[in-house]
Specification:
The protein is an alpha+beta fold. The protein contains six helices and 15 strands. The strands form four sheets. The protein has a six-stranded antiparallel β-barrel. It has a five-stranded mixed beta sheet with strand order 1-2-12-3-13, with helices on both faces. Strands 10-11 form a two-stranded antiparallel sheet.
């Protein structure tokens, strides 16, 4: 049964809820904050909620039990992890997930500690003055400044080795119908999956739907794997972003997806040289094309 969708109502919900999701702290392996936000938003729309050992939030909407459908969207975001605090109070870190060094210059960050949050800013060994950088930087040459003058002062702030660090971007509207913000990968689809649960609230003739808000996607799809094995659904859809590469300088032959052309249905992906990736189920691809 295909549901009638009210675009205006979803736009209003997006304005109200998406920024909260994006701004929530949720570096891979440390998804508690954003998971709690999602749990509150879905509580009235599902029959059962549980959190498994890996931190996946599994919300079930029981239907006619003729078959089961799992729909996954990942909670986690890329970020950093504190690995060393030096005697001058500077914090050195390791990336969590696909963090590229060229985007780190002067980037504000938020460090999650046991006592709360601490703001900082990323700096580089060659910040531009007096010495400029000429080559692509390396992660190991960046550090975080939290305004401390010593290691002891950093510890007084509650910061310790192992704390997760969220890289900050302002949430903003661009033009008529575009948005920018932190962790849109994959909080935009977390939002969409919540909206799906709202649409299904009063439906009876639906499969058993397991909405799974997964953990540790950015470091190897770990939450999706464990939840898929535990639920053993008949079919599964993974909701995630795709890169729109219709930007200046990209040859036409390399443009795969474009903004304002609708959703993307994945057929295959591949991690070069590693021989890792996915060839999607043709049965599911054909169903999605038919709906689209």
């Amino acid at each position: 049964m295909q549901k009638e969708i009210n675009p205006q109502k979803i736009k209003e919900s997006l304005k109200e809820n998406l920024e909260v999701l994006c701004q929530s702290h949720g570096v891979a392996g440390f998804e508690n904050d954003v998971r709690n936000v999602v749990k509150e938003q879905i509580r009235d729309y599902v029959d059962d909620i549980k959190v498994d050992a890996l931190g996946n939030l599994i919300a079930t909407r029981r239907g006619n039990s003729k078959y089961s459908l799992m729909i996954a969207a990942h909670l986690d975001e890329i970020g950093l992890l504190i690995k060393r605090i030096d005697k001058n109070g500077f914090l050195w870190f390791e990336p969590v997930g696909g963090v590229f060094p060229q985007v780190l210059f002067s980037r504000p960050v938020v460090i999650k500690t046991d006592n709360g949050y601490v703001k900082g800013i990323i700096n580089h060994l060659k910040p531009g003055r007096p010495e400029m950088i000429k080559d692509l930087p390396e992660i190991q040459d960046f550090f975080i400044d939290v305004g401390a003058r010593s290691k002891e002062e950093v510890k007084e702030m509650g910061i310790e080795v192992g704390n997760p660090v969220s890289i900050q971007y302002d949430f903003m509207s661009l033009g008529k119908n575009k948005i920018a913000g932190k962790a849109l990968d994959d909080r935009l689809f977390v939002f969409m999956l919540i909206e799906v649960l709202k649409l299904l609230k009063d439906d009876k003739d639906i499969p058993d739907v397991h909405a799974v808000f997964t953990t540790q996607e950015e470091v190897g799809l770990r939450g999706a794997k464990t939840s898929a094995y535990s639920l053993n659904p008949d079919e599964c859809l993974a909701l995630d972003i795709s890169i729109a590469n219709d930007i200046p300088g990209t040859p036409d032959r390399k443009i795969i997806t474009e903004l304002d052309k609708g959703p993307v249905i994945k057929v295959m992906d591949l991690v070069p040289r590693a021989m890792l990736g996915l060839i999607a189920s043709q049965k599911i691809v054909n169903k999605l094309k038919k709906v689209a």
